[in-house]
Amino acid sequence: MSLGDSSTPLGKVRGLGSAQQGGEHWITERVTSIALLLLGVWFVASMLLLPKLDQRTLVEWLHNPSAFIPMALLIVVGFRHALDGVKVTVDDYVHEPGTNFVVNTLLLFLAVAGGAIALFGLARIAFGVVA
Amino acid sequence: MANAQSRPLSPHLTIWRWGPHMVVSILHRATGIVLSFAGLGILAWWLFALSNGTDAYTDFAKAAGSPVGLIVLIGITWSFFQHLLSGIRHLVMDTGAGFELGINKTFAILTIVGSVLLTALMWFYLLGVRK
User: Fold this and answer.
1) Labelling B10: which of A66, A121, B30, B116 has CA 20 to 30 A away?
2) A86, B33: Cβ pair inside 8 Å?
3) Could you report the per-residue pLDDT of A33-87, keeping only the tens digit for each?
């Protein structure tokens, strides 16, 4: 210990322990993963069961609520799960709090923007404003 | 803080002999990142193109059907199945089960065998049978 260091032992460890949060993030990651297990298998099965993957077939398919609703859920839950998962990687490797905040915020914006584009496309198909 | 340098460090990747469980653990993260960026990115592009008239979808279909496009799509399919099977393994392990050395190793190998097999079957059907 150097002479210039006047902080008490308690002062040194404050803020270094458990953050008292994070459990919810962990649970959300698992719950969304179970939802995506169902939605992902539904999506792959749909790609295999559709007779063709041309625009007409796909647009007709997404017009139907039985495809539109799970697709909307796949987008929302998928982007949420991706954001939660990538955040774990960022937190593992980007330790500096300022950089960590910037990277996680950029990823949040990217996920919301991506989800919005996908939902916009889906809505435009489902509500029939397609040439 | 002179003795901070001499503290024992926990052994890392360079120390351990590689095993299936390590490969699968790292693949889970790698495939998750692939799905988050490439997978969801292409999903958003696909839905937007589908909703955006014939030209937009023709552009998408051309890119997706090119050799590079097919390699990317097959890679994403494999990432999906690997992440899905490895995710199931993680959900089982979250309950505290499957940590016995033999079972853990077998389960890890099975995720890789399963993901390769499912990807091969799916694309054999899409390109070879249905066309």
Assistant:
1) B30
2) yes
3) 999 999 999 999 999 999 999 999 999 999 999 999 999 999 999 999 999 999 9
Interface confidence (ipTM) of the complex: 0.88
Q: How many residues does chain B have?
A: 131
Digit-coded pLDDT (tens) for A21-33: 778 999 999 999 9
B91 to A26, A33, B64, B97, B113: CA distances (angstroms)? 12, 9, 33, 9, 19
- What is the value of pTM for the model shown? 0.87
CB within 8 Å: A89 and B33: yes
Q: Is A72 on the interface with B (CB under 8 A)?
A: no
Q: HEC string of B14-37? A: CCCCCCHHHHHHHHHHHHHHHHHH
The residues spanned by each domain of chain A are: 24-126
Per CB-CB distance under 8 Å, the chain B contacts of A34 are 91
Could you read off the pLDDT of B65-104 as tens digits, one per residue? 999 999 999 999 999 999 999 999 999 999 999 999 999 9
The first and second tokens of residue A49, run together, are: 């069961």
A23 sits in which H/E element: helix A23-49
CA dist A69 and B20 (Å) reads 38
Domains (range + CATH), chain B: 33-130 (1.20.1300)
CB contact under 8 Å between A30 and B35, yes or no, is no
Q: Do B44 and A115 touch (CB under 8 A)?
A: yes
How far B49 CA lies from chain A's nearest CA (Å)?
A: 7
At position B84, the amino acid (one-letter code) is: L
